[in-house]
Amino acid sequence: MKKIVVFALIAALCAGVLLYYYLGNLEAQKQVKVEYEQVVVAATNIPAYTPITNEMVTFKQIPQGFAHPLAAHSVEEVVGFVTESALIEGEQILPTKLKQLGQTESGLSYIVPEGMRAVTVAVDEVSGVAGFIQRGDYVDVISYTSTSYDMTAAKPQQDEAATGEQTAAAGSSGGPSQGTTLIAAQNVCVAAVGTSLSSSGAVTEDGGPASYTSVTLFLSPEDAMRVIQGSRSGSIVLVMRASGDHTGNLQNPIVNDSLLEKAE
């Protein structure tokens, strides 16, 4: 009888040990190690069409598999880009939804230089250099208009004004109207030809330049007004510059009478 009791105690002890190890292994299986990944999120609310700076973004740890598959993982992927829509604080930033300044794929407004304006002018085969203009070329904008302003008297007036001397009303309007050709803007970069932002001009099936009816130019605000005034009050012609030629054009306006003087 005594042996049976001892055997029962030993069996109970073994069962307790096995139960202890079983419960320990079961608890270890429940402890799952969570792995995290670092993504870039908005540190504050960012309005639409805003260039992103370092201060606007931060990092956030998100359990692996729960982050957006297109989320940015480094600030270099987002800083300097422009938001296409508003971002709220803590939102994951997707580089595919950002625009980049200077890239034609982002649109015309993203390649306009700071302080400049994009202005489109109508052209034909003659005023548009027979279709040979390409994006990135430089042109002068020549305006032809009719005016009663005395250009011959205005030149001495401008010279005296530069030296601080005052003159009478020489160079004022009131004389006979004459056809006048003048420089509305010079050394102007071509932003686009027609509706294409391609750096190479379109070509026809036989390899020749394709026709276009408009050219978009990068102009300063003042030159933009001069070009628009010239196109509305008369006509304009684009004159292409040689590649690398950015010298100033100091040519004075030409009036009808000056052509007769040259003929004499």
Automatic annotation (TrEMBL):
Xref: Pfam families: RcpC, SAF
Start and end residues of each stretch annotated as Disordered: 155-177
Gene3D superfamilies: Antifreeze-like/N-acetylneuraminic acid synthase C-terminal domain
Bias kind Low complexity: ranges: 160-171
Record-annotated SAF domain positions: 37-99
Xref: SUPFAM superfamilies: AFP III-like domain
CDD domains the record matches: SAF_CpaB_FlgA_like
NCBIfam families in alphabetical order: pilus_cpaB
Name of the protein described by the UniProt record: SAF domain-containing protein
Organism: bioreactor metagenome
